[in-house]
Amino acid sequence: MSHTPLDQECPESAALIDHLKQDDAYFVNLVSKYRVINRTVHRVQSPVQRMSAAEERALGQQRLHLKDQIAHMLATATG
Q1: Residue 52 and residue 23: Cα distance in Å, rounded?
Q2: Per-residue confidence at 1, pLDDT binned at 50, 70, 90?
């Protein structure tokens, strides 16, 4: 897993992400949680912070779940 910000992972949706950040509090909450988990994943994968494999797996699953929710919101907002 990498520490790529959401707008760089989905450059085709950058404008929509910005729009939803302004108009949808739930979306803002998802993106905020995603950002925190994404940073933590990055730190865990570097020598800065370590955790057990099970904790890292759980964190990765949380990140994926948030990313799926965000992707769903982006898809329904454009479609």
Answers
A1: 38
A2: very low
Contact 63, 56 (CB under 8 A): no
Residue pair 70/31 in contact (Cβ under 8 Å)? The answer is: yes
Q: Which of 18, 3, 5 lies closest to 74 in space, CA to CA?
A: 18
Q: Is 49 exposed, middle or buried (0-12, 13-18, 19+ CB in 10 A)?
A: exposed
- Which whole-number Å values give the CA distances from 75 to 52, 55, 59, 68, in the listed order? 34, 30, 24, 10
- Cβ neighbours for 56, distance < 8 A, ≥ 6 positions apart: 41, 44
Domain ranges of the chain: 6-78
pTM score > 0.70 for this model?
yes
pLDDT digits (tens, 9 = 90+) for 17-55: 999 999 999 999 999 999 999 888 888 877 767 788 898
